[in-house]
């Protein structure tokens, strides 16, 4: 039996957000568009790792890329995702 409208999409969104690094990327992008090299620097991880996680987030419709000269600036498609992530992190920090 298919899931009621919205549940399947919500599951896909939560799967895309299931990796801690993707949560960190969304948190960074909540502050505005960033290029890969900026994310690499702020997150202290390798460029291939950031690119791999951006690919997942892009595939899930969480982020989009816009050309900025010779680079691509990534931004959140929907600010609601930033709120979901911020609430989840806050909830986890409270120990619940």
Question: What would you say this structure looks like, in words?
Answer:
- The protein has 96 residues and is of the alpha+beta class.
- Helices cover 58% and strands 15% of the residues.
- The chain has helices spanning 7-16, 20-29, 36-43, 47-59, 79-93; strands spanning 34-35, 63-68, 71-76.
- The protein has a 3-stranded antiparallel beta sheet with strand order 1-3-2.
- Helix 2 packs across helix 5.
- The longest helix has 15 residues, at 79-93.
- The radius of gyration is 14 Å and the shape is globular.
- The N and C termini lie far apart (33 Å).
List keywords for this structure.
single chain, 96 residues, alpha+beta, three-stranded antiparallel sheet, 5 helices, 3 strands, 58% helix, globular
Assign the structural class, choosing from mainly alpha, mainly beta, alpha/beta, alpha+beta, or little secondary structure: alpha+beta
Shape: globular
Ends distance: 33 Å
Q: Can you count the helices?
A: 5
Secondary-structure element order, as H and E? HHEHHEEH
* CA-atom Rg in angstroms: 14 Å
- Could you tell me the number of beta strands? 3
Estimate the helix proportion, in percent.
55-70%
Instruction: Classify the beta-strand content into a percent band.
Output: 5-15%
How does the major sheet shape up? 3 strands, antiparallel
**Order of strands, widest sheet:** 1-3-2
Outline the low-pLDDT stretches: none
* pLDDT averaged residue by residue: 92
